[in-house]
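Now for a chain:

_____
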Amino acid sequence: MADTHLTGRYPRYTSFPTAPHFHAGVDGETFADWLYRLPEDQDLSLYVHVPYCDSLCWFCGCHMKVMNRAGPVSRYVAALTAEASLIAESMGRKPRVAHLHFGGGSPTILSPRDIEHLMTGLRGRFVIDAETEIAVEIDPRDLDEQKLDAWAAAGMTRASIGCQDLDPRVQQAINRIQPFSVIARAVEGLRKRGINSINIDLVHGLPWQTVETLLDTVARILTLAPDRLALFGYAHVPQLKPHQRLIPNESLPGPAERHAQATAAFDAIVAAGYEAIGLDHFARPDDTLATAAASGRLHRNFQGYTTDNAEVLIGLGPSSISELPEGYAQNTPDINSWHKAVAQGALATCRGIALSAADRLRRAVIERLMCDYQVDVGHVAAAQHLDPALIDDAWPRLELLELEGVVTCKGQHVAIDPDARALVQRVAACFDDRFTAPEPMAGRAA
């Protein structure tokens, strides 16, 4: 296949349209109107962003700020409660939450008192019951027994632990010193408290990383027997994240090495008995993520692949994105501006995008491709009571991929060849009418 298949970067399609196409035409009033028009029996997914960490990882691409004082974090928790009130008031009811996800930054920077106050505030504005899945992204370096107790008392049902890589040279290069024993202790503490649904995040393409060092990391992590694993590719974007300039360009693996790392890690994880899920996730065959994938019920949102089938995702905190039937609404990424808006009793929406009928159809088709590696466009259109001709512009773009053996098109059914599944984003881009050309892959030349 052409080299551009490996050296080009395509959107991850955790949303469609993707975030670069959001604009200031969607504001707080627009978002409030969308919330008000939601059905009364509509369950929600709730994402809570904690934008603080106690140290800076140089590879990080998140909206975050280093914070070593407790006061600002506690004030932030109070402001999250106020924002939750604004959401519930806009809806005119106390909505039920099916999935609650804490991300960052690092949610584990919160003190036990902060965790208790935050959960009390959220439960006062939303219905969070025994059926609600509560997932927390964990930095094991700042996790202690008291915080573990607090998160367990909060109802945490799933933990996602950031590992990245265990090689000391790689950890030094990304400023994240984290021995294996720290991760093992976190896993032990979680299981001791009955939290057995554990995911561990790994990253390929990091500075000084090699196939051999990554495979060593994978082998050691597998001894912890997590329910799920994620293997993400490092995105080197120093023009957007200036701290990434602390990573020497010459330390980055080139496109061919990145591909070799991803392939080797994939093979090792699958050989250990995990099912490959979509682009970058793995799960034990009896895990709900694997069973959802097998039955065509897998979904994809800003947190990646999920069993969450709620049609509405509400984001709290700066930079958070909400997904509703009418479109997307994103909060301002600036923490101070977000605080000011919430203190004034206003939703902190700064941009977003409203969806046309064609957008909704493209979004659904792209999601199925990203989850299932195949899609029946006619079937998806019928389920949404839409005309499949709305996205007929995709078919000419698929012709080249069909000639190259990447996809097979029969009628309105598109299937990606099993050997070409790594190109799923390229296939999805054929249905993206806003996509122009792939970005060059970050890293030195191969």
Summary: The two ends are 17 Å apart (CA to CA).
